[in-house]
Structures are given as structure tokens and as C-alpha cells.
Amino acid sequence: MGQQITVTGMSCGGCEQSVEEALEGVEGVTHATADREAETATVEGDAATDALVAAVEDAGYEASA
What we know:
Blueprint: E1 2-8, H1 13-24, E2 29-35, E3 40-45, H2 49-58, E4 62-64
Antiparallel strand pairs: 1-3, 1-4, 2-3
């Protein structure tokens, strides 16, 4: 199952990588892809949406479902 969340504050490829790593650290996530231009992150797996948002915020970015 895939989910998409809105992520703001990414300004470079390193930011995308940081968001992806934060999301992939959430239990149930099998793969994550961040897109700074679209301000989104797409997540594969069965993680809870609130856990995804919290992980992105803990990495220093703004997120919403």
C-alpha cells in the first residue's frame, strides 16, 4: 500500500535523502521517495500516517498528510 504526504522545507538533494532516510526508519516502510519540487514524499508499506509525519518533522521538515 502506498501513501503520499506533503513535505515542505526541502531545498536540495541532501534534503530529499534526509527525508527518505527518516521515512525508511519508520516501522512498516519498505521504500520512500521524496520530491522537493513537488513537495511530496511517497511511501510504500503499511506504516501509520501519523508516524510518517512525525518522522519527517523530527528530521527538521514540515509535513502533513
